[in-house]
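Record type: monomer structure entry
Structure origin: computed from sequence
Chain ID: A
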Amino acid sequence: MTGFSKVAVYRQDMPPKGGYSPIPWSRLPARRIPLWPFVSIWLASNIFGYFYHMSEKREYWRSEMEMDESRSCIEPILLAEQDRIVLRQYRANRDEEKKLMNDVPGWEVGTWFGEKVFKSRTFFPDRPHVLDYYGLSRPSTQRLDVNASQWQI
């Protein structure tokens, strides 16, 4: 025979002596976590944040006041530099006009067909007209100067 004819002998599991322990089916309340550590941490962080914010705000306004004072101190220097740039451009325009109109007889530089443009020597416009300022310059120069607003206050 091939060995398949033998019947296996099984032994049934039986409960342990004294029986099984009882099954816990009643509700177990969750462990309570105390609230006071979280509230105290929250309160401490709020108090610290308030005083930190006040000190930072005080420092911000102190530096802002210093920047305002420095801006008001440097404003005349920037205006003088802007006027210097305008005068330099007027001088370049005048030199260019002198070079261009050199061959025209009776041409006076800085006049409008022989008539003076400004009646007095003290008048100087606050903002020059665009055609006066960029009259004899290249368009690329005008674009560069218009886009660079570094002297504007």
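Annotation 1: Residues 39-144 form one domain.
Annotation 2: The two ends are 113 Å apart (CA to CA).
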